[in-house]
Amino acid sequence: MSIKDRIVSEGMKLAGSPQVAKLMQDERFMKLVMTAMSMPGRVSTFTTEQKEAFAKSMGLATSDEVRDLKRIVSSLEQNVARLRARIEKDAE
């Protein structure tokens, strides 16, 4: 039996327990469970915000800003190449 199967079977046993059913009806407990489930997202958001604030205070570019700048430079290079080709065509 794999770990996943064991966890699922133990979870099913717990779900059928009257004590757990009573606990699941408690609004405070459910609020705690929902808060615990949202924690990874909150931590991720917090660390991203702190990383960006640090980069800004140090005068550094974030990876998102570098990616955007690379995209802009690539677009500008394509425009310049198009314009050069048009100028050469008109010069002929």
Into which percentage range does the β-strand content fall? under 5%
Q: State the total count of DSSP E strands.
A: 0
Q: Major sheet, described briefly?
A: none
Low-confidence stretches: none
Secondary structure: helix percent: over 70%
- Mean pLDDT, to the nearest integer, reads 89
Output the helix-strand order: HHHH
Query: Rg, please?
Result: 28 Å
Q: Tell me the distance between the termini.
A: 77 Å
User: What is the number of helices?
Assistant: 4
What does this structure look like?
The radius of gyration is 28 Å and the shape is elongated. The protein is mainly α and 92 residues long. It has two domains: 1-60, no CATH class; 61-92. Helix content is 87%, strand content 0%.
List keywords for this structure.
2 domains; 92 residues; 0% strand; mainly alpha; 4 helices
